[in-house]
Write a structure and sequence with these properties.
- The complex is a heterodimer of chains A (about 280) and B (about 400).
- Chain A has about 280 residues and is α/β, with parallel strands linked by helices.
- Helices cover about 45% and strands about 15% of the residues of chain A.
- Chain A has 12 helices and 9 strands.
- In chain A, strands 2-5-8-1-9 form a 5-stranded parallel β-sheet, with helices on both faces.
- Chain B is flat.
- The longest helix of chain B is centred in the first third of the chain and has 32 residues, at about 95-125.
- Chain B is built from 15 helices and 9 strands.
- Chain B has a 5-stranded parallel β-sheet, covered by helices on one side.
- Chain B is an alpha/beta fold.
- In chain B, about 45% of the residues lie in helices and about 15% in strands.
- Chain B has helices spanning about 5-10, 20-30, 35-50, 55-65, 80-90, 95-125, 160-170, 185-190, 205-215, 250-260, 290-300, 315-320, 335-345, 360-370, 380-390; strands spanning about 195-205, 225-230, 235-240, 265-270, 275-280, 290, 305-310, 345-350, 375.
- The interface of A and B includes residues 13 and 19 of A.
Chain lengths: ~280, ~400
Amino acid sequence: MAGFKSTERYIASRDLEVAVNAAVTLQRPLLIKGEPGTGKTVLAHEVAEALGHELIEWHIKSTTKAQQGLYEYDAVSRLRDGQLGDPRVHEIANYIVRGKLWDAFDSSEPVVVLIDEVDKADIEFPNDLLLELDRMQFFVYETRQTVAARHRPIVIITSNNEKELPDAFLRRCFFHYIRFPDRGTMEQIVQAHYPDIRKDLAREALNVFFQVREVPGLKKKPSTAELLDWLKLLMVEDLPVEALRSNEKQLVIPPLYGALLKNEQDVHLFERLAFLARRGG
Amino acid sequence: MFAHFILALRQAGLNTSITEYLTLLGAMQAGVADYSVDDFYYLSRAALVKDERHLDRFDRVFGACFKGLESDDGVLSRDLPEEWLRKLAEKLLTPEEMAKIEALGGFEALMDRLRELLQEQKGRHQGGSKWIGTAGTSPFGAYGYNPEGVRIGQDESRHRRAVKVWDKREFRDLDDTVELGTRGMKLALRRLRRFARQGAATELDLPDTIKSTANNAGSLDLKMVPERHNAVKVLLILDVGGSMDDYVKLSEELFSAARSEFKHLEYYYFHNCPYERLWKHNRRRHDEVVPTWQVLRTYGPDYKLIFVGDAAMSPYEISMPGGSVEHWNEEAGTVWLERLTAHYRRSAWLNPTPQRSWGHVRSIHMMRELMGGRMYPLTVNGIDDMTRELSH
């Protein structure tokens, strides 16, 4: 069995590897939760690449319906064609629009399906997909046809915890919670993305980064994605390491902080704390 | 094979099902865990736990089942309120030490010291055992207390042996549900959901379409309306500490019931009576305060304001400037309460004490008058009445 392992670009912890391999082996969906920016969506890309499968992405919005992932019957254009006397109107199959899951089920080789941010949708959305994800088949009422998966796809579902998911849905999934990486793992991740970064720069930047994360009351703590963006900026700007170095525990406003702090209130909070620290120190 | 483990998980309040157990066995058979204890831990976690708030409980049960750790009387104790730890710290530390710690820089350091003390205590009392069972004067009472549990550092190395992985109980911060007994409240809170049409027009409005198509001499004219969405916004303000300690559990039940029901749910904490400041995290109430003005500015009048508190205090705490037991308040509690209730169109107070005892406490009477009579008991019926009042 070709298992999933950390790659050069994606550092997966052992528990994540086990969870992915369990989901792949038993052909069950894998539900991934975690802080924003800890690599939930990227995981699907990496799994697809590691297994050599195609990736089909289905991004969920608040208006997305479960049915749209299967198929849609475009009644409106059929009605219009009927009014205009188009001969296409007699064949109902002309108005069935395939969804992402249909594509995945119909694929001649196994694929990875990413259902991204499932919690964005309506509260009933996961329930509507129960049977489809369990049996990997569904029925098209309009054409009286059953679509069954030729190969059970590997389904990876991400959630940001905006809504609770129903129990019946959860029972059918494997679950993994991506924790925020610790310092050691973070160093590996930085190394994986920027192998030629200067050692001292990376060290000081991580110091500042973890210091920023510990500031109490931040609305959005910077996470891995923000750190990587910020490091890239630092490398492009070629800043001297001294600009990052803070003395003792004193807080400094990091250069190019716009990449780390995404919220006006956070920037203000930070400036205020830095000012207090300067005055106190 | 692991039936006792599954039963223990269910006893600890995780609703692990047979389906999930069979999934685990299937995965074992397929060789996912591969004879490694670490992998078995990870695999069973991925298969049996579906909510990060349950991960901590899972770790404890796993530890108890597979390592023979003694469990604390079968009761999985909840996280200790930081308030109690503070009190304990006051008791354990001499004034000189307190002064020294103040100089060292605040509570984080204090917690460090506290942990050291507790570890010493562990050594003396129960040599090598995991839990401290303190008796007598300690505020920890019947609860077992795991000194590792006081979170001081953030994440340490993850690459330690797995036996330690679950012992570290890294997920305890996520355990914020008290799911048992909340079903009834959930039902009542569902009343608060009010359907309102907002957002993009995505649904076909059939009557209007027929009408305009007819007006259009038979050629199709589609009319759309926005879909129904749950648009209720709630600002929850909870009383903690002091006389509310008994009711913290009840309030938490309400809180966990409320969380999934609304479009927006914001919560703040206060002590006894709301004044010019509230706080966002119960645990850090002395470090992170939010000015009440800021709360008023941030959340518009369309939020529904719900206080949860026993309203049991000295009448001065409500009526007099400087009446607060914690700090000097420039303006009296009445002023702030009037300000809050005037700003929010809909507000109510939930009181966890039994309704029949309300008449005996003067401050409850005062608070009820300030709320215009909108004080309800924290029961399913009370919540029902409250939601009816709020959704007018």
